[in-house]
């Protein structure tokens, strides 16, 4: 970088010297001005010097066109490099996003499996509770069935409604 900077400074210095020479010798023909400019290497000039040379009316048209072509090539190279850097950055970000996405998907899958296992456990518990409830209900129904049969018999016999209060008419009839 330092070497190219030194080369640019030297080329820019030569450009300034030629510019001053052409300014002092305005009577030179186009061919003579082209001959003087042959010592300049446009590719080694700084972008600022190239920009100045492109607008400089003292320089021959052939040299100005050469400067413009070099500037265009430099600009194209710069844009290409910037686009490459940007593309590389996008690719890295996309790869990182894919990696994160893959990790996220794995985490989601693991959580889904945990949830699935928990749901199956809850379903088992629910089935067990349902069976217990059904068993309890059928057991109570059978008890209620006996009790209701007992109540029916008590009513037929004329007993009071409460099981504790058993003033049965059957007992009274026996006493009398």
From TrEMBL:
InterPro entries (alphabetical): NPH3/RPT2-like (IPR043454), NPH3_dom (IPR027356)
Keywords: Ubl conjugation pathway
Domain spans labelled NPH3: 1-74
Family: Belongs to the NPH3 family.
Protein name: NPH3 domain-containing protein
Native species: Salix viminalis (Common osier)
